[in-house]
Design brief:
heterodimer, A: alpha/beta, Rossmann fold, six-stranded mixed sheet, four-stranded mixed sheet, 9 helices, globular, B: mainly alpha
């Protein structure tokens, strides 16, 4: 197992001078006692035309709630989409629940156990909440006899049971987001991937959502991409910071807070953030960028 | 969720009921056009109806290939090609057969056979376009191609012209059928396997 707070230990400069994750097996501290993580990516590279979104990333996740932090364009959504099996990697290995997403049989087996909320999930305005969640249950080939109860349970968990037969076109943005969460959990997934799930939720809904996240994280692997560090502090067991397609930091919310506290002694004032976890985030990000610059200079 | 209920939701998600309404309007327009012109004087006066009705029908079918929840659809466990193929074939059959019934007669020229051929070819071009550029703009290449053929066909002769100018050929022309069927087969296979191109790629 690698030192999670010292990703530099894994880094080497490639022949072009770029810093790459040479042996990118960075293990989540929440997995210290887990020998068989549910999600593992090794040397993962994702490209969008000429842009490299992820560059030789290695990560693993087990049961718990794992926050993915990072600036815009860091590669968080690219990672989530690869894990959701909707985008293929350019290279590298992906393993979900012990299977590689290749071929219809393996893909089907993975997708049955997968829940996914995309950053921008399209929906059908003429559907009711019940119909939309049922549609996703049908996509997942859930047994016909289980589906109606599973739909009602998922809708109830996101607090929309009183709107279950309301058309989506009449719901607010926050409610639509909760419908998105309901569809992601309708099949009781073992791996749940949420891309910006709290966007559009009001503070009370976010508190409720964090409670749901903690509850889900007791039994399944939840990977949450977010910009809101306070959500990570409140609901996550592990934190992964991604920057420019590379893993910049791995730790726990507590270790990120400790990093922020330590840095605020060295550099007092609000420049790094208004609270300890924001300061920890900024400190980890800057440290990663400095290492990348040093690596490039070598 | 039974398979039947799931299929009903799939059909609604692709706005198939709205598409059927639009196709009915095009069919009514085609029937009116086919019988209002003085075809007993010159059967070729049906040519605009035989050419335009299939292109409009293909445009309407192309818009129904749009999937708003494309990103979620891509996580489906069930294989997509059966519903996609059934969707495309069902609407194409309806769009080809019903208007063809309104222009019965003149099988050698601009009659039912030409309507069926042009519908197949236009839907084929539209389906290929949906895969390549997305469903919302899938109507554009078929209209563009038809316009280009309309301009270029004046004075064009020979066997090659019967192939590339298939929308404006008489119904009994074998080269035009071969071209239209090839395009339709390519479009149907491509769409069944790939689906319409996502129109908002996340970054």
């Amino acid at each position: 197992m690698n030192d999670v707070n010292n990703p530099e230990a894994d880094r080497t400069a490639d022949p072009t001078g770029q810093v790459t994750d040479a042996a990118p097996q960075v293990t989540d501290p929440a997995l210290k006692n887990v020998t068989d993580p549910t999600v593992r990516v090794t040397d993962l590279t994702v490209r969008h035309r000429r842009t490299t979104a992820l560059n030789g990333v290695g990560l693993d996740f087990g049961t718990g709630v794992h926050g993915l932090l990072g600036p815009n364009g860091a590669g968080k959504t690219s990672l989530i989409r690869v894990l959701a099996t909707v985008a293929p990697p350019a290279s590298g290995r992906v393993e979900i629940l012990g299977r590689e997403p290749r071929g219809h049989r393996e893909l089907a087996a993975i997708r049955r156990e997968l829940g996914y909320l995309p950053q921008e999930f399209g929906y059908y305005p003429g559907f009711t909440v019940r119909e939309f969640v049922a549609y996703v249950a049908w996509l997942k080939e859930m047994p016909a006899e289980d589906s109606p109860a599973a739909v009602e349970r998922a809708v109830e968990r996101v607090g929309l049971h009183d709107r279950i037969d309301t058309k989506l076109r009449t719901l607010s943005g926050g409610m639509i987001r909760r419908v998105g969460i309901a569809q992601a959990i309708v099949n009781d997934p073992k791996v749940l991937l949420l891309d910006e799930p709290t966007a559009g939720l009001d503070p009370e809904q976010r508190v409720e959502f964090r409670r749901l996240l903690r509850e889900l994280g007791e039994r399944c692997t939840v990977v949450v991409s977010t910009h809101l560090v306070e959500d990570v502090a409140a609901a996550c067991t592990g934190v992964t910071l991604i920057d420019s397609g590379r893993v910049a930091y791995r730790g726990t919310p507590d270790s990120l807070v400790a990093l922020g506290d330590a840095e605020s002694v060295a550099e007092p004032g609000p420049a790094l953030g208004d609270n300890a976890i924001e300061r920890g985030y900024t400190t980890a990000l800057r440290a990663h960028r400095e290492r990348a610059l040093e690596g490039a200079a070598r | 969720m039974t398979t039947a209920n799931g299929l009903v939701l799939y059909v609604r998600s692709r706005a198939v009921p709205l598409t059927l309404g639009r196709l009915a309007a095009i069919m009514a327009f085609a029937a009116y056009g086919a019988h209002s012109v003085d075809v007993f004087l010159d059967p070729q006066r049906r040519a605009p109806v035989v050419v335009l009705a299939p292109v409009f029908a293909a445009a309407v079918i192309g818009s129904s290939l749009y999937a708003a929840a494309d990103e979620l659809d891509r996580t489906a466990v069930r294989p997509w090609w059966p519903p996609r193929l059934a969707h495309l074939l069902g609407l194409t059959a309806l769009a080809a057969v019903v208007p063809a019934l309104t222009v019965i007669g003149d099988a050698e020229g601009f009659g039912a056979a030409a309507v069926v051929r042009n519908t197949l070819g236009s839907v084929g071009v539209t389906a290929v376009a949906a895969v390549l550029v997305g469903a919302r703009l899938s109507w554009l290449p078929a209209f563009g191609y038809l316009s280009a053929v309309y301009v270029a066909v004046q004075g064009a002769h020979g066997r090659a012209a019967t192939v590339w100018a298939w929308p404006l050929q008489p119904g009994a022309q074998p080269g035009s059928w071969a071209a239209a069927l090839t395009v339709f087969a390519a479009g149907a296979v491509l769409y069944a396997l790939r689906g319409a191109r996502p129109e908002r790629l996340p970054v």
